[in-house]
Amino acid sequence: MPPPADIVKVAIEWPGAFPKLMEIDQKKPLSAIIKEVCEGWSLGSHETYALQIADATNFYITEKNRNDIKNGSILRLTTSPYQTALQLHERIQSSSMDAKLESLKDLANASRDITFAQEFINLDGISLLTQMVESGTERYQKLQKIMKPCFGDLLSFTLTAFVELMDHGIVSWDTFSVAFIKKIASFVNKTAMDTAVLQRSLAILESMVLNSQDLYHKVAQEITIGQLIPHLQGTDQDIQTYTIAVINALFLKAPEEKRQEMAHILAQKQLRSIILTNVIRSPTPINDEMAHQLYVLQVLNFNLLEDRMMTKMDPQDQAQRDIIFELRRIAFDVESEPNNGGSIEKRKSMYTRDYKKLGFINHVNPAVDFTQIPPGMLALDNMLYFAKHHQDAYIRIVLENSSREDKHECPFGRSSIELTKMLCEILKVGELPSENCHDFHPMFFTHDRSFEEFFCICIQLLNKTWKEMRATSEDFNKVMQVVREQIMRALSVKPNSLDQFKSRLQNLSYTEILKIRQSERMNQEDFQSRPILELREKIQPEIMELIKQQRLNRLCEGTCFRKISSRRRQDKFWYCRLSPNHKVLHYGDLEESPQGEVPHDSLQDKLPVADIKAVITGKDCPHMKEKGALKQNCEVLELAFSVLYESDEYLNFIAPDKHEYCVWTDGLNALLGKEMTSDYTKTDMDTLLSMEMKLRLLDLENIQIPEAPPPIPKEPSNYDFVYDCN
Q1: Does the model's pTM come out above 0.90?
Q2: Where is the ELMO domain (predicted)?
């Protein structure tokens, strides 16, 4: 007979004694279990003891997490969180350097546990640590020359304990003094600082900036870009990552009017070239966190273009009109005509003719073309940059098109405006960076004016594609679609430089795009004849059932989900999987991302599928409403879903990627008997249906399938015929 579900068999350790094998009744209060354990070892004052998981985490067992205990677990009897916090609170104030160092090391390890952290914080432990950082370190700096390693460790463990305690979100970041900020900033500003101390200090500054607008201003006064730059020139990728994270945080929280100023300082300090040399082209492979920080920096740089992108041109502004005059002057090599000869009408006619050659929609007043937002004035900026920095290419394009027939000319002005708008869409100018994205492009770190250079390459591509397509003005939108496809395909291979991007585009001519499209169409084989459509309809339910089984099998394998916290590098994970009989969802927290499947018995929390009422997605999820203040962007919203079960409670998910999101929402909808509507279901349906159709039609290759069934032949004139079967 199997043991009752509430009975768990465990081993319990106590220093200096043999471990005890014990059955724990999960229905009994935890205090009663601890009392029983203490009595077994003849220990009094059981209220001063607690149970811990005997592994690397040393997490305390509480009424909230006691269900995580599973059969075969090894527990440890230890002092209660309050007693431990009290002891460490006293020990870290010891006058002995060795005792202080050992206690701070213990504190850094213990602070990862939220139960201990709460008790230590209640003893005003955070204030004690900040005081030690503000004033205590100075006492030991005198000893630094003779005890440098010890000093570094002392400070490192102090800051580590501080970071771990703050990560629990119990204490507000707004409570810290200017003296503490100055001290942390001083560790970053020093050229020769212990690596661990520097890493923790950068992490603290990043969290301060991201979590408090008031602290942003204080940190910005203490830290300059020039002081951060040397940390990027080392070889430690973790330090480089934290440094870029601080720069990103300062950039992100800076008021709108200060961002351009900050970008100018970054350019002066040659941040881009330093990152390119020491990070992107470093022999050390770029890890995910560094890739994310580079992506964030890339997005923030491109978002500086938003102001110009959303600024309409004022047709009455002479300075802005002068830019258009400059485009005309460079293209046609004309000087300002003298105001003589009563030729105002003649000059107007000449301007109109030239503006038509430049490809503006409004030939009389081209300024009107730039009143559309987006791209607004950004398009005019790009055109002027192209005309000044790639003058030969600019003049060639304008003159080539002005010599063609009207219907075959590629309008430079209109093309530039639409292309600028397209590039802003591709690079998502104006959108906040995603928390999960690592999609940075090395080529944008190779030039100080990377967006403008990107435009210059693409406008020449557009003109080339227009000629290859022999397009007319009616084909403008078709040409833009082809150009967009060429750009997206070239970007997908992540070229390392703008020259590589240009070379990739050379290989993606219009003819090549047609071949790719034809190949993709052949792979899809989407026949439209009635017999084929009837066969598709017949096969479709079988394929849908196959997709459903695949989704449920994936849910049975399970997925590791990430709990989003204020600091991405302190990720917490949890795992969820469906039971093999499809009746229960098993889930539970993990310390780190697993390498393979997590067994059911290690996931103590359960949710019966029968209790699930609905699956909610996107902004309707409760955890997305809670995070509204953090300005969650559309990408995070697209990965969020929640399971509503009885008593109006929710199990909240944020999928690691779009594929897992589709798998889980499809699988959960299938369990509820609802339709699977994700993009991946449609893609899988098309792929599998196409393959099945090809297999079934294999014997009919090169045979024309008629639209209608062949007619039944007339009856024979007589039936006097015999088949000789011999």
Answers
A1: no
A2: 319-491
